[in-house]
Amino acid sequence: MGRSSNLSLGSVLSVLFLLFAQLSSALKFDLFASTGNNERCIRNFVFKDQLVVVTAIVGGQKGDGQVVNMHIKDALGNDHGRPRDIAGETRQAFTSVADTAFDVCFENKLVSHHGHSNLFESIELDVEIGADARDWSSIQAQEKLKPVETDLRRIEEMVAEIVNEMEYLRAREQKLRDTNESTNERVKWFAFGTMGMLIGLGVWQVIYLRAYFRSKHLI
């Protein structure tokens, strides 16, 4: 019975980690070199006080006539890193200051051809946020946790982040619904006001015309 319980727990953990691994798979693309502006950005959303680790693996090597620059910025105007002329693996980490979107941007500047026919660099980007960004090997060693305990801690934090995200979306949906209802209420009263003005204007015109014709002894 104990063996079957351990097996089922292991199966559940395997399925969950397979799911999370698929959701957090790295993004790969080719960035062509240009003498102008060829910046390409990838956007993510992050909650306040969340750890973000950006790992970029850039093909090629320094001095090959192409200069790849990376820029990490958020929608609030904060810069979180500007590594220049990167090649190989580059890692940048920061902690978000607010609930906001952030962009990871790359540009490939053409310095010289150097006889190369393929003027592009391959880029592999991996963005880890929250629980995914933490160093669980170090946590396991410091707290002397078993592998299963470490996995459960990681899953627990991931689930908590999902719950927080759902609460955030629910709050936004509530705010948008309140705004929609308020707008509908204002439109309704504006329509009633417009109809009242039109009716009042029509009554005034009738009274004015009747008084005009009476003054002219036409009625």
From TrEMBL:
Residue ranges of domain GOLD in the record: 26-214
Transcription is among the record's keywords: no
GO cellular component: COPII-coated ER to Golgi transport vesicle; membrane
Membrane topology: Single-pass type I membrane protein
One Gene Ontology term from the biological process aspect of the record: endoplasmic reticulum to Golgi vesicle-mediated transport
Transmembrane segments: 189-209
The entry's keywords: Membrane, Receptor, Signal, Transmembrane, Transmembrane helix
Keyword Plastid attributed: no
Localization of this protein: Membrane
Segment forming the signal sequence: 1-26
Homology family: Belongs to the EMP24/GP25L family.
Identification of the protein by name: Endosomal cargo receptor (Erv25), putative
Species the sequence originates in: Aspergillus clavatus (strain ATCC 1007 / CBS 513.65 / DSM 816 / NCTC 3887 / NRRL 1 / QM 1276 / 107)
Lineage: Eukaryota, Fungi, Dikarya, Ascomycota, Pezizomycotina
